Amino acid sequence: MSDSLIQEGGGGSIIIRGGKFYAENTQFRIDASEDNNSLIDIDAENISMINSRMNTMPATTGKGGDILLNAAESVSFSETHLYTYTEGGMKNAGNVHIGADNISVGKSFINTFTSGMGNGGEILFDARNSVLCSDSNMNADTQSKAQAAGNAGNIRIKAGNISVKRFDSEQFYEQCGQRRKYHPRCRTIGAIVKICDKFFG
């Protein structure tokens, strides 16, 4: 599919099953409801996205929807943005979970974000063989109000081989009122890298 908008605004989900999934210049968006476990769920042999977006946001103050992408062989992104968000209330931002034999991310941005009392979502790459990240940015952010207690989500990458080129996990901070606590930027990933009690590995 190309040059398309797929949107679910009633608290439902977008679920796609198929052989080869290809999206270019396409946006997927869910406005999650308070009570439903809304999500974007794609399961295919191969998943390829170019210059596309996937966004999940709560319609009110509920939980942000999850983004789940699973492929038997490969998942690849180029100039693509995956984003989960929630604000206010006690609910957490949605998670971004990507699983495949091989995962390739280029010139893309993946973000989970909360500005309320809930936590930022988890970003998980689970590859049976390899993960390649280049010219990309991965953030798990929290911006909490003074009375809030939200925490930034975890970022985890699991693979037999991990290759990272010009990769940032910056803007990884917690904000309470006027005080911001900035965490270090990660530009390289070894077997396990610990960043302010958050783990890659």
List the helices and strands and how they pair.
Elements: E1 2-8, E2 14-32, E3 39-50, E4 53-58, E5 66-78, E6 81-86, E7 96-106, E8 109-114, E9 123-134, E10 137-144, E11 155-158, E12 161-165, E13 173-176, E14 179-182, E15 193-195, E16 198-200
Parallel strand pairs: 1-2, 2-3, 2-4, 3-5, 4-6, 5-7, 6-8, 7-9, 8-10, 9-11, 9-12, 10-13
Antiparallel strand pairs: 13-14, 15-16
Folded structure, characterized:
The protein has one domain (2-200). The chain has 201 residues and is mainly beta. Mean pLDDT is 72; it is low at 144-148 and 170-201. The protein has strands spanning 2-8, 14-32, 39-50, 53-58, 66-78, 81-86, 96-106, 109-114, 123-134, 137-144, 155-158, 161-165, 173-176, 179-182, 193-195, 198-200.
Total domains? 1
Q: Helix share of residues?
A: under 10%
Mean pLDDT level: 72
Choose one word for the global shape: globular
Radius of gyration: 16 Å
Question: Order of helices and strands, N to C?
Answer: EEEEEEEEEEEEEEEE
* End-to-end CA span: 34 Å
Give the total of beta strands.
16
Strand content: over 45%
Q: What's the helix count?
A: 0
| Low-pLDDT residue intervals, each spanning 5 or more residues | 144-148, 170-201
Q: For the report, how would you describe the main beta sheet?
A: 14 strands, mixed
Decide which structural class fits the backbone: mainly beta
